[in-house]
Amino acid sequence: MTTEKGSISIHTENIFPIIKKFLYSDNEIFLRELVSNAVDAVQKIKRLAALGQYNGELGEPLVAVSLDAPAKTITISDNGLGMTAEEIKKYINQVAFSGASEFVEKFKDAKDANEIIGKFGLGFYSAFMVADLVEIQTLSYQEGAEAAKWTCDGSTSFEISAGDRTTRGTSIILHINAESEEFLSEHKLQEILDKYAKFLPVPIQFGTKTTEEEDGVDEEGKTKYKSVTAPNIINTTHPIWAKAPADLSDQDYLDFYKQLYPFAEDPLFWIHLNVDYPFNLTGVLYFPKVKDDFDMQRNKIKLFSRQVFITDEVKDIVPEFLMLLHGVIDSPDIPLNVSRSFLQADSNVKKINSYITKKVADKLGELYQKDRKSYEEKWSNIGLFVKYGMISEEKFYDKAKDFALLTNTKGEHFTFEEYKEKVKDSQTDKNGNIVYLYTTDPDKQDGFIQSAEKKGYDVLIMNTPIDGHFVGSLEHKLEKTQLKRVDASVTNQLIEKDEVLESVLSEEQSATVKSIFEKAIVKPNFSVEVVGLSPDDAPVTVTMDEFMRRMKDMAKMGGGMSFYGNMPDSYKVAINGNHKLVGKILASANEEEQSKFAKQAVDLALLSQGMLTGAELTAFVSRSVELI
Ligand code: ADP
Ligand code: MG
């Protein structure tokens, strides 16, 4: 073969400085690109053999990555199909993009290397992000092929000449540049391979060597290297998502989970995804054990394309509410190398999104049907996903409404339908609305809960971070149903009935009581009301209006209700006209005493609800001491 020199067909004078400069942050992906090319080459020769187009020895498929730190080289070699000199010219020299001007136009806005490399077919050229000289040694599988060598120093000129390879396949030798010497570390390369190559479908071998000659040259006249770290296979070529569910045991799924997340607790259950039409997707999604730490576990799903790790940012591909799931998704149909905005608009991505939503809903429905008891036991974990999903996706709500559970203060679980049946007789108000009562804090609201239960009402527990929104969405979805926190008003008024509340006080006495309390309360945002409750009910109850409280809660969570967030808290103070204490206050000797008792009664109410703090609490304590 004669040596040929030429120019890579890019019209821009020198594209490599551009690639290097703009892709610098992501430069570790050079290894992903070169190793995947090697894997592709091995798979191609296997396919050719299967098709009868290659009849030679196939050998054990292998991709070997080796580091020679003293020589400052990294070599990626494979026993794939190899290339002829003509093929090098075709596939390597004619960089696959329409024109440098387009590239230069586009790279300005590119956010990461992925974007450019994919869009312009620059996989191989990512080598120049870390190398100032790249050498290809290759021998094609084709009969009579001659070994070829290609070198390029990062300028646009290359050289092709006769190569050294005596066996089929390709070696890419990277002469690592001065700025990229971090990659000349065994540890670093191992880390990158663990990230990208752990599940590649062809065995990947990794080892390091020194240039130190052990005993000179071998029979073929090539330098012998002394191994520092013996090469070993670093990947699993048949990860579970690439297998059929029927061939897998529960233990296989659990083992794989441990492999992915060594420090996590066992998952609750998993879903094996497997579609080939209208898009291709496989994967295993795990429901982890999570409770309240809402944001901590995000971005745990790993995205692969034909077993090459791509990213663990699956936003846009996995529905938002399933971002808390763990596991892997593998799809060659997800456009991986394009910008986020394009991804959102991509129709495959949309289909994948709704497929995953449906699969998850079906799985949950199946678990509920199959074993309700164990489903209920898992509900405190699953509930988070289900509620989140119901709030954010209409389609998911429609499926989940049959297996979503409501839990009451007694720890009993009900489906929506069951719960409606349970409470509709006792908790329908005079306008025909069913009122669901709930507590956000069973300890703090205990007094209200007890009082509601005494009246025969049931109280649901809504104490997770998502429940505030869930309550809102239930009210929106369920017909003629209202949700009220159990302390939204005095128990008698929670569910408005036709019966009138009788007070033993005369109208005049009521007015007097009201004014005593109004004077006693110094805070600005209290309104006082005298009502006739049972003598056993609390003498004073402080409540915050349901609507107002919800708006404030949402403002706190950043729900855009800042108008409400900025408003001072305002409370209703209900005085139980039928309570002994009120009679006693009315009968007190003088105004000072009346006021003291009133203050004390209000503070007691606040105290029982955990609302008495700071200076007011201090004043209450000293007043109490004085009264004793
Ligand atoms: P892509 O992999 O997307 O085609 P690349 O720039 O990574 O783009 O590679 C360009 C082409 O060079 C490949 O399509 C393939 O034909 C050829 N090639 C690269 N690496 C190898 C290899 N190790 N063995 C055989 N052919 C290779
Ligand atoms: Mg490639």
TrEMBL record:
Which keywords annotate this record?
ATP-binding, Chaperone, Cytoplasm, Nucleotide-binding, Stress response
> Pfam families this protein is in?
HATPase_c_3, HSP90
| A GO molecular-function descriptor | unfolded protein binding
Name the domain of life this protein comes from. Answer: Bacteria
Q: Does the keyword Methyltransferase apply?
A: no
Sites where the protein binds ATP: 33, 37, 78, 83, 98-99, 170, 340
Give the family per the record: Belongs to the heat shock protein 90 family.
This chain's protein is named: Chaperone protein HtpG
